[in-house]
Fold this protein.
Amino acid sequence: MSSSCRIDFTGQQGGLCVSEPVRLSRTQPAALSSHMSTTAWNSFCDQIDAALQSLDKVKHIARVGTFVFFAGFLCFMVLPFVSMAASDPWSGGGSSGPTFLIFLLGPLILMVGMMGTQCWAASRGRAAMREVEAVCEDISKQYSALSFHVRFEYIVYGRYGGSNYYAGNNHNYHHRGGSTHTTNYIEVNIADVESRGDMGIASAPPLVTASVVRGTEKSAAERLGDLDNIRGMLSEEEYERKRKEILDSL
């Protein structure tokens, strides 16, 4: 029977706001130890980490953008009150118009910028995962018994009691309240070696060699009989040559 194992990525929890880089877990699953050497495993991890390295810059820009958004939003919320407190109450409020306009447009500009940053980060994340998929496809071609695939799962963080509910690998789920988080991992399918015939690699039929031992312990008739028994393993030319050698020894 075929089996499978899972390889997780580190640094995914918390999304883009966490400074920990996204990398492949370096712990080799026990199921792969009989199929991949330690050197091959480390090389595979290095290739995956190289494909994920571009996410380091993406996470940094996303964190800075999030900080700017919240700091700017807070400033625009406080600005009208500061302006009203600093204005002359006997001036008739002539400066309230520009202040009110900034109060409306400022948060809107920040929200558009924040959404644009998030869309850009998501696009770069998908591009990085496509590179990971390419690495998995290449490594799968090197091992006939192994098949590497990038998977994703949805995790629903429940509102009540802080419970976490695993939602699986499909989009068809429903939940009440809480929030969702998407993580990726690599699934390795391991084919049954016996059912695939030596890990799926076609092998040549065993080479059968036959020889007639020349000696005094057997008569010519016995050696001719032995030769007839293995005739199906020899070509016609080899059979005639061996037969001639036996006859010549008389």
